[in-house]
Design goal:
Blueprint lengths: L1 H11 L3 E6 L3 E3 L8 E2 L5 E2 L6 E3 L5 E4 L5 E13 L4 E9 L2 E12 L6 E11 L4 E8 L6 E12 L4
Antiparallel strand pairs: 1-4, 1-12, 2-12, 3-11, 5-6, 6-11, 7-10, 7-12, 8-9, 8-11
Length: 158
């Protein structure tokens, strides 16, 4: 019975968050293939538990006192300001890239939106910040950012 009660308590414990921004802006790219933070403090969904928005970066921070195994999904919509430029998105933890959480898409200067989507499973420790970075792999041209969002959801396990 004690084991069953413990298992139910773990299943009831919530840890999830969603942050977004829908404010178009320009991502200033400093050089070809250089990663830059998406410099937008997002709006935190009121149903978020154990997470808060990261000030000055699009992402979420673990404000709980526990580590959690999570699924992270992040997207941004944007287009390049030059013709046929390769844009990229990646997830980072505390400023360090998360292996396997990078994607690329080609954007066009005529306003055709490219949708970039990154995904990862990882353990977030107390205080960890999971944020988004962008790059232009064609040249040092800026990116027209349209909207972005991140979702962190607790998985069974840790």
């Amino acid at each position: 019975i004690l084991l069953l009660r413990r298992r139910v308590k773990v299943l009831e414990e919530r840890f999830n968050g969603y942050v977004y921004t829908e404010t178009p802006a320009t991502i200033n790219i400093i050089s070809t293939s250089a990663w830059v933070d998406l410099p937008y403090t997002g709006t935190l969904d009121p149903t978020s538990v154990g997470l808060e928005e990261v000030s000055g970066k699009l992402g979420l921070k673990n404000i709980s006192q526990k580590p959690y195994l999570v699924r992270v999904q992040a997207t941004y919509d944007g287009h390049s300001l030059g013709p046929n430029e390769e844009m990229a998105l990646r997830l980072v933890r505390n400023g360090t890239k998360i292996p396997g959480a990078e994607c690329h898409a080609t954007g066009t200067a005529n306003g055709v939106i490219a949708k970039l989507h990154s995904y990862a499973h990882l353990v977030v420790e107390p205080g960890d910040e999971i944020t988004m970075q962008a790059a232009n792999f064609t040249n040092n041209g800026d990116i027209a950012f349209e909207r972005g969002k991140m979702d962190i959801f607790r998985l069974a396990g840790v």
